[in-house]
Design a protein that fits this description.
The structure is a single chain. With 215 residues, this protein is mainly α. The protein has two domains: 48 residues, Arc Repressor Mutant, subunit A (Orthogonal Bundle); 137 residues, Tetracycline Repressor, domain 2 (Orthogonal Bundle). It is built from nine helices and no strands. The chain is elongated and about 55 Å long.
Length: 215
């Protein structure tokens, strides 16, 4: 599934205006693609999307420029693949939280939700650089946010199956904002007492869930 919309914004340079990346069919090809994606993430994190070049990415991966273009016809196609890769990690993390949500003590669930985006954001600086670049089609951002809200709502539903869908959706939006705040706190290296602040946020989320979901 492509993460990018095919419609270009009049005021942006969306990552979608490119052919899809070629999917490798053999293990060696998959390993090469993984290396190229890792190199792209590093270069995007170091230089940003606009300043990064395909030549630099190929050199970082120890690959020829032809090999890079074989799998990713454009820089936008590479960025698109990185977005999808990162969101797959986020979705898997949220699925793991959902699997324990029904029986997990509420304070632990609150901490798990608070830490969900912190961990994935810290491990994927290239993804953060892409989000901050201003080059992502707004439709892509909307798709990402909708999918995450739905996953958070599913987590809350396992804890409180009695809540109507509309209330779950509203609660999921509020919880997701707290999760994003936690990730922003962790990324702010100038913030004194970051760990203490994150613990405070987890307590706030716990208090909210206790009132909203019960238990």
């Amino acid at each position: 599934m492509r993460m990018s919309s095919q419609k270009a914004s009049a005021t942006r340079k969306p990552l979608a205006a490119a052919p899809e990346a070629k999917a490798p069919s053999r293990r060696r090809g998959r390993e090469r693609v993984a290396t190229l994606l890792a190199a792209g993430a590093v270069v995007f994190a170091d230089k940003g999307f606009d300043a990064a070049t395909m030549t630099e990415i190929a050199a970082r991966a120890g690959a020829s420029i032809g090999s890079l273009y074989q799998f990713f016809p454009t820089k936008a196609a590479l960025a698109d693949a990185l977005l999808e890769q990162h969101m797959n990690v986020v979705h898997a993390h949220l699925d793991a939280i959902a699997a324990q949500a029904a029986t997990q003590p509420l304070p632990e669930l609150a901490r798990a939700l608070c830490n969900a985006l912190v961990a994935t954001r810290s491990a994927n600086p290239g993804f953060v650089a892409l989000l901050d670049s201003g080059n992502i089609d707004p439709a892509v951002i909307a798709t990402i946010r909708k999918a995450m809200r739905q996953q958070v709502a599913a987590i809350l539903q396992r804890r409180a199956p009695h809540l109507p869908a509309a209330e779950l959706a509203a609660a999921a939006a509020a919880v997701l904002q707290m999760m994003k705040s936690a990730a922003a706190m962790q990324a702010d290296v100038t913030l004194p007492g970051r760990e203490a602040a994150l613990a405070e946020l987890a307590q706030m989320l716990h208090a909210y869930l206790q009132v909203r979901l019960g238990g």
